[in-house]
Amino acid sequence: MTYIRHFLMKFGVLCLASLLFISGCEEPFQPIEENHEYFFSVYGYLGSEADTQWVRVMPVRETTEYSDEPIDATVTLENLDTGEITTMNDSLFTLSQVAEEDAYVWNFWTTTDIHPSNTYKLKVERSDGAITTATVDIPGQFADPTIDFNYVEVYDVNNLAEVLLNWKVRDRRDNTIHEFSVIQDQVIYYRTSEKYRIVIYPNDDFVNVILKSLEASQPQIEILDTKAVVSVAGSDWVDFSELGRDVIALPEATSNIENGVGYLVGSIRKVFSYPVCVGDHQVIISCQPDN
Predict the structure, then answer these.
(1) 92, 106 in Cβ contact below 8 A?
(2) CB atoms closer than 10 angstroms to residue 86
(3) What is the DSSP letter of 259?
(4) Of 113, 127, 95, nearest to 48 (Cα)?
(5) Sequence-ordered list of residues with C-beta below 8 angstroms from that of 13, at least 6 positions apart, any chain
(6) Which of 66, 95, 255, 267 could form a disulfide with 251 if both were Cys (CB 3.0 to 4.6 A apart)?
(7) What is the distance between the alpha carbons of residues 67 and 102, in angstroms, rounded to a whole number?
(8) Residue 244, number of CB atoms within 10 A of its CB
(9) What is the enclosing helix (H) or strand (E) of 276?
(10) Of the candidates 73, 20, 28, the residue with the CA atom closest to the CA atom of residue 251
C-alpha cells in the first residue's frame, strides 16, 4: 500500500475529528446535525496501475458512534469516455487505532481496469434516491524520468503526487528478506522548464530507515534491489501536507465530492530501476553502467 492510499484511507476517518474541532467557526459544516446537502463521505484514489481500486464510502451520520450494520449505498464507477459502468463490491474494515473501540468503515472495491487519459464518475446512491458523486480525470502517460544518482527529474507533468525509493534487502544474520518504501520529500519545481527535480540521498535513507529498523550495521545488510516509483495525479490533486487542519476540514476548501464530503483523485505511476552499490567505507554510491 502506497503512501497516497494509506493517507487518504486514514484521512476519511480522521476528518470527522477535524470537522468537530472547527465547530466554533462561523457557519461551519456540522456532520452530526441533520442535513439535506451532504449524504456520503468519499475518500480514495483511482490508480491506472492498480489491479484493484479501493474507495472508502461512509454515510454522513447523525452520531459519532460506529456501526457494523450494512451500509445503505450502491456504488458504481462509470468510464465517461466509454460508457462502461461497474458496480463496486463492499467490504467492512475495522480500524482499531483511531478509536477506543473498533472503528468500522466500508471500503468499496473493483478489479475493473482504469485507463490513462480517461474520466471516471463515481456514484453513491441511497435507497431513498439521495446521490453523492465524484468525477475525476486520470492523467495521461508521461515521459520516463531521467536519473542521476542524487536526483530524479520528471518532465511535462502538472501534479507530482509522490516519489518513493523501494528497497529489497537481505539480513545476512538470519538470511531474511525485507522490503522498505521510503518517501522522497525534497522536491524542486522549475516552472520555466516545467520539470520536477527530486533530490535523493540513498545512503541517508538506508542508514536512517533500514538500518535503524533492522537494528543492524551496514555490512550486515545486503542490498538486493532498488527501484524508484513516481506517481502523478490528475487535475483535482490537493497537497494536503501544505494545508492546516482547519482548512482540510472544510468541504468547500478541499472536497471535490458533489452532495457529499471527502476527496477522490486519479493517478498514474511509473516504476523503474534505481541501481545503487556499496563503495569504499560502506557508503552507498551509484552503480557503473556495466554492473
Answers:
(1) yes
(2) 16
(3) T
(4) 113
(5) 95, 98, 103, 105
(6) 255
(7) 9
(8) 10
(9) strand 276-278
(10) 28
Residue pLDDT tens, the chain, 291 long: 344 444 444 444 444 333 333 333 344 445 444 556 789 999 999 999 999 999 999 998 655 556 777 889 999 999 999 999 999 999 988 876 555 566 788 999 999 999 999 999 999 999 999 999 999 999 999 999 999 889 999 999 989 999 999 999 999 999 999 999 999 999 999 988 889 999 999 999 999 999 999 999 999 999 999 999 999 999 888 876 666 665 555 555 567 899 998 999 999 999 999 999 888 888 898 886 554
C-alpha distances out from residue 35 to 111, 176, 262, Å:
34, 54, 16
How many Å apart are CA 182 and CA 105, to the nearest integer?
28
Q: What is the torsion angle, in degrees rounded to the nearest 10, for the CA atoms of residue 76, residue 133, residue 47 and residue 197? A: 180
Strand ranges inside 23-138, DSSP E: 40-47, 53-59, 74-79, 85-87, 89-95, 103-110, 119-125, 131-137
